[in-house]
Design brief:
The protein has 526 residues and is α/β, with parallel strands linked by helices. It contains 18 helices and 18 strands. Bound molecules: 3-methyl-2-oxobutanoic acid and zinc ion (ZN).
Length: 526
């Protein structure tokens, strides 16, 4: 079977979607997880967009771009300044890649770039050759290829290949095409572009019509051998093609596609949960592969069938995507050694001693409250305890009074950056509102809560609740200077936070502290 290269752009196109901003530590954790998932290429960011983006791409290049790790790519518009910045960011990786792009559709050429087709070809030649003079591995994308004249695409792509591009990526930037058209476009490119058979042809689809995965699969069937995808399908507008859908389609239907990937499918759920926790972007329950209901059989006839033989209604095993129902045979009397062994088996191989201690203390507390501690619980605890921003303010205690006939009231005790303890209280429309108002009285950062979601990590009344939220500062800190590469417009900055606890009010408070600390860290970096 031919191999399909998986190019993950969660940290670039995914992070570009409104509100999905991650901080540098979160980006590094996601990149490490993508390496465990065994993606072939990580597009780590758009280095010229902001100093923070540059720093994150460079850190990932140094820490994750090892010789046996993935290729690390940085995005650049087709300009020398962008390409220089991308190269500077990725050059420390063992396998660096420069990914440069220029729009080719008449709509973009006329209205956005105000450029003729001839000027477009000349710019591609010059900038791809320049990128090649710096880096052996160069990818070129004709933006809005889905709406470009195919005959013109053949000319542009030939120029890019002659100038040294080793991958030509075909984006359906606005998610406009259908699988039949997109498949035919790829077939046409391979047949009619001189040199196309000597390079990797890649596909990059957006989901505006809900066809991103279908278009990507059509592109692969037509001969493309790289798929550009994101975890949970996050990305601009309706998102990008989702990694898990492509990986599992190829895994589940090998006879049909006759293609394979190197993805370790058992890392899919963990990757999905991490991206949800860090971006605050919830996965819809009926989302293929990673949605909460993706493996749930509700109907009686289905349950009966699955009990008799899972093959009746299950085309994939939950374990294959890392959805383990396996319970930890660890209880409150288990020792640190057994716990650490279990974490190793789950893939947490690089936790420091301090991190392990923190996770172990949380596990002990949880084992006191819950009869059965599952792997999913442990993942939630680790995300809550270890994948948090540096604490400027620390939540010490909360106490909530709520119920019918009372005004929901919260009292909070926080430790501040000066190591002093502050206590305050407030009332709210509900207990969460009361907690957030009480915290606001102490921390004093004006903001609005734009999203709030609670999910149960496992089933049952004693389940751990995971809260993800997003806040937006309201003191004029709107644009963050980080530019969307396609529109050139700076985005509104939002900060996500996550928390997990068997008490969802405690989880809500932790999520809020997580978002506020991110905001304050961001300010002090500025
Ligand atoms: O959708 C798109 O066109 C892109 C390019 C930058 C590859 O994301
Ligand atoms: Zn895109």
């Amino acid at each position: 079977m031919d191999k399909v290269y998986i190019f993950d752009t969660t940290l670039r196109d995914g992070e570009q979607s409104p509100g999905a901003t991650m901080n540098i530590d979160e980006k590094l954790e996601v990149a490490k997880q993508l390496a465990r998932l065994r993606v072939d290429i990580i597009e780590a960011g758009f280095p010229i967009a902001s100093p923070g983006d540059f720093e994150a791409v460079n850190l990932i290049a140094r820490e994750v771009g090892t010789a046996d790790g993935p290729v690390i790519a940085g995005l650049a518009r087709a300009s020398k300044k962008d390409i220089d910045r991308a190269w500077e960011a990725v050059r420390d990786a063992a396998k660096p890649r420069i990914h440069t792009f220029l729009a080719t559709s008449d709509i973009h050429l006329k209205h956005k770039l105000r450029m003729t087709r001839e000027q477009c070809v000349a710019q591609v030649k010059e900038t791809v050759a320049y990128a090649k003079s710096l880096c052996d591995d160069v990818e070129f994308s004709p933006e809005d290829a889905g709406r470009s004249d195919p005959e013109f695409l053949y000319v542009v792509l030939e120029a890019a290949i002659k100038a040294g591009a080793t991958t030509i990526n075909i984006p359906d930037t606005v998610g406009y095409t259908t699988p039949w058209e997109f498949g035919a476009l790829i077939e046409g490119i391979i047949a009619n572009t001189p040199g196309a058979k000597d390079v990797i042809v890649s596909v990059h689809c957006h989901n505006d019509l809900g066809l991103a995965t279908a278009n990507t699969m059509a592109g692969l069937m037509a001969g493309a051998r790289q798929a550009e995808v994101t975890v949970n399908g996050i990305g601009e507008r309706a998102g990008n093609t989702s990694l898990e859908e492509v990986a599992m389609a190829l895994y589940t239907r090998p006879q049909f596609f006759n293609l394979r990937t190197d993805i370790d499918t058992t890392q899919i759920m963990r990757s999905s949960r991490m991206v949800t926790a860090f971006t605050g972007m919830q996965v819809q329950p009926n989302k293929a592969i990673v949605g909460a209901n993706a493996f749930a059989h509700e109907a009686g006839i289905h349950q009966d069938g699955v009990l008799k033989n899972p093959l009746t209604y299950e085309i994939m095993k939950p374990e294959t995507v890392g959805l383990s129902s396996s319970e930890l045979v660890l209880g409150k009397h288990s020792g640190r050694h057994a716990f650490s062994n279990r974490l190793q088996e789950m893939g947490y191989t690089d936790l420091s001693q301090e991190a392990l201690n923190l996770a172990f203390q949380r596990f002990k507390k949880l084992a006191d409250k819950k009869k059965v501690v599952s792997e999913a619980d442990i993942e939630a605890i680790i995300a809550d305890e270890l994948y948090q921003p540096q604490e400027v303010w620390k939540l010490e205690h909360i106490q909530i009074v709520s119920g019918t006939g009372t005004k929901p009231t919260a009292t909070v005790e926080l430790t501040g950056p000066d190591d002093k303890t502050y206590t305050d209280a407030d009332i709210g429309t509900g207990p969460v509102d009361a907690i957030y108002k009480a915290i606001n009285r102490v921390v004093g950062v004006p903001n609005v809560l734009t999203e709030f979601a609670v999910n149960a990590v496992t089933e049952g009344i004693d389940a751990v609740g995971e809260v993800t939220i997003r806040v937006q500062p309201t003191n004029g800190e709107s644009g963050n200077g980080k530019v969307n590469p396609q529109t050139g417009i700076a985005r509104q900055r939002t900060f996500s936070g996550h928390g997990a606890n068997t008490d969802i009010l405690v989880a809500s408070a932790r999520a809020y502290m997580s978002a506020l600390n991110k905001l304050l860290n961001y300010r002090s970096r500025q």
